[in-house]
From TrEMBL:
Lineage: Bacteria, Pseudomonadati, Pseudomonadota, Alphaproteobacteria, Sphingomonadales
Oligomer and partners: Homodimer. Forms a membrane-associated complex with FtsX.
Membrane topology field: Peripheral membrane protein
Segments forming domain ABC transporter: 5-235
Molecular functions per Gene Ontology: ATP binding; ATP hydrolysis activity; transmembrane transporter activity
Protein name: Cell division ATP-binding protein FtsE
This protein's record includes keyword Cell division: yes
Keywords: ATP-binding, Cell cycle, Cell division, Cell membrane, Membrane, Nucleotide-binding, Transport
Pfam families listed in its UniProt record: ABC_tran (PF00005)
Gene Ontology terms: cellular component: plasma membrane
GO biological process, any: cell division
Length: 235
């Protein structure tokens, strides 16, 4: 399995405050399932934003698909972003578009001809169990239905990585399990999946998933120790 993402000594500071992420180093292997956990404010969303190229680090190196993502020229960003699907806790659907048109949006933005859009959209609607709700606007869908539209929109372009930030935060436990099942089935088809969650019930549902635990902006190792302890000068 190839390394699809590498973070090396990443630091992130917003404005002039303290660092939000400090010395974060890890490697993601293609085709694996990862959970990012940690208390509120630990830096989960910040780490995911770096991963889906919505934020640049203050220091360190990010390698994505084998290339330096921090030094990537601006004109190559959209092409890179298309290789990463993103699902948010609050869905972020376009309110005036139907479920069908929300799902079609990434293909339209990428300039895919209309004749080639209908079939993948139908397949996605069926996959997330919403074939009957194709014409519905987001406001008329339940939270779980909206999130399934958001997942379909995130994966219709067949991204290599799917990143989801607290995707089950606004749905009931049964729906959370159903959504996780969608992520798991995508992962089994080869997509690398990264899910940030507070929800410890979910973690046990994917036994083969790897855990990435953040504590005050630092990654812990599997035993709960800091992976990269702060440097203490010799006294
Ligand atoms: N755009 C920003 N500007 C300034 N500070 C920010 C910004 N985004 C996040 N922070 C700060 O960075 C820290 C980590 O926030 P982040 O949202 O990454 O944590 P989180 O683990 O995802 O938290 P939660 O589980 O509550 O969503 C917090 O102290 C937060 O206030």
């Amino acid at each position: 399995m190839a390394n699809i993402v590498q973070f090396e000594n990443i630091g992130l500071r917003y404005g002039t405050g303290a660092e939000t992420l400090t010395d974060v180093s890890f490697t993601l292997r293609s085709g694996q399932f990862y959970f990012v956990t940690g208390a509120s404010g630990a830096g989960k969303t910040s780490l995911l934003k770096l991963l889906y190229l919505a934020q640049r680090p203050t220091r360190g190196v990010i390698r994505l698909f084998g290339e330096d993502a921090v030094l990537l020229p601006r004109d190559r960003l959209p092409g890179f972003r298309r290789r990463i699907g993103v699902v948010f806790q609050d869905f972020r659907l376009v309110p005036h578009l139907s479920a069908r048109d929300n799902i079609a949006l990434p293909l339209r933005v990428a300039g895919v001809p209309e004749v080639d859009i209908e079939q993948p959209v139908q397949e996605m609607l069926a996959w997330v169990g919403l074939a009957e709700r194709a014409q519905a606007r987001p406001a008329t869908l339940s939270g779980g239905e909206q999130q399934r539209v958001a997942i379909a929109r995130a994966v219709i372009g067949r991204p290599e990585i799917l990143v989801a930030d607290e995707p089950t935060g606004n749905v009931d436990p049964d729906m959370a399990e159903r959504l996780l099942h969608l992520f798991d089935s995508l992962n089994k088809l080869g997509t690398t999946v990264v899910v940030a969650t507070h929800d410890f019930h979910l973690l046990n549902r994917i036994p083969h998933a790897q855990m990435m635990r953040l504590d005050h902006g630092r990654l812990l190792d599997p035993t709960g120790s800091l992976r990269h302890p702060p440097h203490r000068p010799e006294s």
